[in-house]
Structures are given as structure tokens and as C-alpha cells.
## 1
Amino acid sequence: MFNRVGAFEGKVYIDLGNRDWNAIEIDSSGWRIIELPSAHFQRTKGMSPLPEPLQLASEEGKKAIEELRRFINVKSDADFRLVIAWVLASLRGQGPYPVLVLSGELR
């Protein structure tokens, strides 16, 4: 049983937490919202539903990721790519998971 993200038969599933038990199924061909995912999820009382993701064209998706950049204080494009890679790797259905180490000055 998985809590929010799980892997089964080479696919990753993200439980949307909605009343209908829909999930996002991710594989090498892309992602889709499905009913009755193969991965089985359990939910805690404090778990809230996630919004349904929007299907964006490739260029729109790139723009959406770039919009995230203004919220992440990194020095270079390479550092920003590392942060995006960490976000994606943390959504894998099973470990090992990457560890994000943040450092900086306190103000």
C-alpha cells in the first residue's frame, strides 16, 4: 500500500486524493488521469485532494517550469535544472530517493 505516490509494473501512480479514487498514471509515453489505479493507496485523515493537472503542450510546459524559477533562489541554470531533477526524482514510486540539501545565510 502506498500513501500518495506509488510504483507498480514500471508505472508511477499519484493518488489525487479525490472521492472517486482517481490517480495520475505516468509511464514512458506520458501521463493520464485514470480510474482504479493498479497501485493501491491508503489515505490519512489529514490528506486533502490534489487539483487535477492540466495537459500542456510541450512549449507551454517549458514556460510553466520557467515560471517556477522566480520562486527558487539559485545562481545558475545548471542549479535550477538540479532542483527540477530533484522534484521529479522525489516523485518516483520507490526509493532510493534523492536528498535535497539547502545552504545559505540567515537574514
## 2
Amino acid sequence: MLSILGSILHAFIGLRDRRVIFTNHAVELVFSWKIEELIGKTIRVLYRSDEEYEEIASYAYPALEKQRTYSREIHCRHKDGRDIFCLVSSSRVGEILKDRMVVVTYSDITEQKRAEESLRLVNIYNRSLLETCLDLMVVIDPAGKISDVNAATEKGTGYLREESIGTDVSNYFTDAERVKAEYRRVFREGAVYNYPLEIRHREGRVTPVLYSTSVYRDESYNVVGIFATARDITERKRMEEHLRNARARLLTVLDGLNASVYIIDMSTYEVLYINEHMKNLFGDITGKICWQSILNQSGPCEFCVDERLLTLEAESSGVHVWEQYHAALGIWFLIQDQVIRWMDGRLCVRRMHQGDVLDRVLPQPIGGEDQGCLRMGSQGVA
């Protein structure tokens, strides 16, 4: 029996009326008390205060009156004065509790409790991250079942967290088959970003989202599931529709002008846009070089005022007005140039040709039509 007790790493103490009648050597390992220091003494030294010492007896002994064993996690006191946390398991000696004879095992679980507390704090932190995010967030297991969601997902789907957990993630989208296909793809590729889907609320309304997913792994780097986020792009869709409508209205206005309007990239001279009036004169030259397609030249125009369209701060210097004779068409144009930002941020020149008046009031260029284009003058208008 003594050899068995000696091999146990937990403090093993026999008590009669709370005094030590025997113990094993592990009591020194757990508490640093030697056997001879404890024999015949009460176990008060193993606890933090008189109050706790009495409190433990108040619930342990009544429990042992009713049942043979009783266990509880308890704060204890090491010999050096530091607190430790122990799992204390008591067992009465005999069929009935007599003279309060019990055998008590003390297992030091301090490090375990610290690890549990660290894990608890990590879980609180992770939950806080999930809940404070405005995007819908879902954790999905390898079978495609939801294992966790955040509050934004509850709001977006209309289902509480406890209702969603264990259900198939594809149930919450308008295109379930596509969700399943993307789900399989993320396992192959590791991550899939920004693919458009639609989430269906339990009340029937549909929300457009951009869905991104990536696998997550355990400590051994094994894939254990998928972490997914969905960003509500309802406002973005509305804005895109608004911009499309505004652009359509603008193009209608520009196409109705009795003037040629086109946009030129300042660095490449590429024609980015032309209106209908311009197209009727020169054909569809979108994507072509302006001095080639409009003037049939071998290089940029010497009289082009592009360099004067910008301030030193690379901002528009205003509207510049000048005249030009187009030999091939036999028309004088009044031209208005201004620098603008294109949709992708490039600096461009918005150029408008008007030829309805100048071709009636200005003279022909000196030397005839084969001189090509001749600049008659220019002026800046702020």
C-alpha cells in the first residue's frame, strides 16, 4: 500500500477529525510540507484563511454523510505563502462517516486553471472581435454546417445564433448550389475573396453581399473549417445604379449637343470618349490616338495647349479657348479645353469643337487647304 501511495503524484492525506494521521511523499511535491511536519497537525496550513478552512468543512462533511465521495476545486495555500488551485477529492473511510475519518487527495491544477483562464480570455477577445464587426461573420465546419455566427449575421438573416448553429450555410443564400461550389473551391485553394452572392432574410428580403472565405487550421496545421465574411453592398449597389443613371443622362445631353466633345488622356493622347456629333465627323475613334485619328499627323500637334492647362500644383488652370482650321473638313473650329480627372483618376483633357459659326466668319488659312491645321490664336478663360 505504501509503495502505491509513493508512486502517486498527488498529495494523499488520511484525516481523523481533520488531523493528519498519514500522508504520502507527494505532499511535499504539491505543498512543500514534509510528512513529519504534518502528522498530528490539522490541515489548516493547507488553506488561505480560518474562514475558508471552516467553510470547506461545512459543505464537505455533510456531503460525505450522504455519499461516499465528494470533489471540488478549491483555493489552497503553498508553504511558501503563494496561492495554488487544487482539485480536492474526499472519500469517507467505511460505510458511514465516523470520527470524520476521510482520505483526501489534493491535485495541483494551478497551471491548468491558468491555461483555462487564458483560453477564456482569448475566447472573450475573439467573440468581441466577431460581435463588433459590422460584416456578417460565419464559422463553418468541414461538413458545411454553421458552428458560430456574429450578431450582424443574426440581423442579416433573421435567425438567432442558436437557430443557425448546426444548419447548412447554403440555406441562407438565394443560390445554394453556387455557395456549395465556392465552399468546395475554398478547400482546394485555401481562400476565395469577394465573390458576389445574395443573402435571403427569413422574412424574404434579399441583401447583396461580397463573400470572402478562408480555411482555418488547428495547432497541427490541419484544416478544421472555414471562416467566412459577407459585406453588405446594398448602398454600393444603389450608388452604382445612381451613377449609371447619371452617366446615361449626361451622355444623352452630350450626344444632343451641336458640337464635338471628346476626352483625351494627357499622357498618352488616347481618346477615351467621344459624343455622337464627334462620331459623325470622324467615326468611332475611341481608343485611338487623337493626333492620328483626327488630324492624320505623325506626331502630337505643335500648337496643342495641353501644357498650359495645368497649374504648378497639377490642378486645372481653367478653360482655354482657341481656334483651329481642319483642312480635310474645310471647317474652322472654336475649341475649348479643360483638364479633368477621368473615372480612374487619370488627368485628361475635355475638348469641345464648335464649327457652326467660325466657318462662316473666319478667312481661309494663308496658303490654301494643303497647309492642314493652322492655329489662329488662343486665350485662357479662368
## 3
Amino acid sequence: MIRIISMLLALQATVLLAAEKRESIFDRIVNIEDELILDVPNLPPLCDKLDLQRQKINIGPVNLYVEQEGQGIPIVLLHGGPGGTHHGFHPFFSRAKKFAKIIYYDQRGTGQSDYIPDNGYTVSQAADDLDLLRKKLGIEKWVILGHSYGGFLAQVYMLKYPQNILGVILVSAETDQHLTLDRRRLTDFLSEQELVKLREIASNNSLSMEQKAFNMFLNGYWKAQHFYKFTLSENIRFSKYYWKQDTDFNRVMSENMFTYHLVGQFNNSTIPTLMIEGLWDLTWNTDKPQKFHDYIPNATLVVFENSGHQSFVDEPEKFFSLLQDFVSNIQQEQ
């Protein structure tokens, strides 16, 4: 099986080089595999190929896994989930090392950081951990960039530690969980056959988290949050390295998110804030960007027209040009 997968990877790489465009959600191709693949092939994490400073940093209660690259204004990246890892940012954010110091880390209870809940995992605890990390790194103020759930964590950090922030970038960020939004659009792009297959995989308790993720993306679930179809190598690395967390972490943190009421909390915020949304992020419907912007009115909203949940993957040239402009404006105002 591994040999077959390796051959497929080589073939897929050749096809992608020759193709004019990658398959997108608009092609509406039905993805169904006859059998489950239980042996997810091995590929090394992209971290191994990048010139990064890697270390475990003790912030008191726990050790956090941290990577750094580049020079300049510090930008710390808050990964999604709850329960994702920093791997989702590789290799894309290496583009930004030309104009900033990029700080990747795994939040407590995820990835290569310690799994020590103390009194219980909470978003507030994660915000406190983040500020302890800032102090340990010797940074006075920094830019925080939160993706997905990391965007929710960024909002809580904004409320707790506004004095330590130069600017905030919210990329396809989770909103106040009490905000009323239209139904998500995923079923508009998945066939009934794919939905049936995905329910079968999700309910198969004999599969590991890695096996479930790999097979779900093979059977069309990439459309949930991506404008372009995963390559096989991207699927392997996402399944093996992105979704790593303590037992029951996602459920505990997801429930804790409902205890926060964020609407109305940012009306007087003066923190420079950039809000980036993908028009075809099927996690939400088309009403989400404006409703989100309404409760952070100081933010600048930019909607990427050919992106899903990860605009830094789908439209990298536009994304990192916008990020560089945002950083430059902050530096000029200092």
C-alpha cells in the first residue's frame, strides 16, 4: 500500500506541474474511495525542511513548543482547532520572514507542548499562556495573528492584554458563539454519496483520529474549508501532524468558548485590526464576514474572492502582500 501511495504522490506531482489549475469546489467532482486506507503513509513534517529556531520554552506551569524565523516586528501565530497545531502554517508563513519575525507555537494541550490542564483547559488560560510566552521571549509588544479558533483566542487576548498588542490579524476567525449566523454551506458542494461516506467514516470508532482525517479528506471533506483540493502529500501531513491534542481537549475547549460574550466588547477598541475572510469558506455562510465586522467595528475587513478557510494557502500572493502592508503601517505609526 505504501508503495502505491508513493507512486501516486509522484504521479500527482507531475500532473499538478502540468495542470493549468487545481481542482476547486466549483468543479463539483464527486470523491469516493472504495476502501478505507488504514496505513497512512509516512512523510516528514515540513518543519524538518525549514530553517527554524526550535525550542521548548518554560512559561511556569508548562513547556510550550516554539519555532521562530525571520527578523523584524514580531508576529505570533495562533493555530486553529481547538486542538490543531502550528503545522497548518507551514510552509506558507516563511514568506513573511522577509519583513517580520514569525513565531509559531503549539498551545497548551496540543502538538508538542505539554498536556497539563491544571484546573482545566480554558480559552482564558490559553490567553494567559500566550502572554507568559511573550514575556519569556523578551518581547514588549507584538502582532497577533489568529486563524479559525486561533482568531477566537486572539479576541480574548485582545480583551485581557490590549497593552501588549501592536496589531491583530483575524483570519477566518471564530466569532462570538452566541452570534446568529445563517447555516453553513458545506452541503451545497458535497454530493449525497460523499455525505453518506463521510458519516460512515466519522462514526467508525475503530479508526484513529489520523485515519479518520486522512480518509475524510480523500472522500471530499477537503471542500469543508478549502477552495482547492488537497494534494495527497498535503492530506498526509495534515492528518499526521495538524490534529494533535490532549484527550477530550476539543470538546472541553469548544464548550468553554460558549462562556464568552464578545459582542459589544470591542466598540471602543483602538488596536489596529485586520479581518481577512474567504468568500468560499464553507464553514460559514455569506453573512458571516459582515456580522463579525459589526462587533469589531474598528477592524478593516478584506474578503478574498478565491479563498476558503485558509486564504494564506489559496491566495498567498495577495495575502502576504496585505500582511506586509499591515505591518509597514504599524511600524510607521510607532
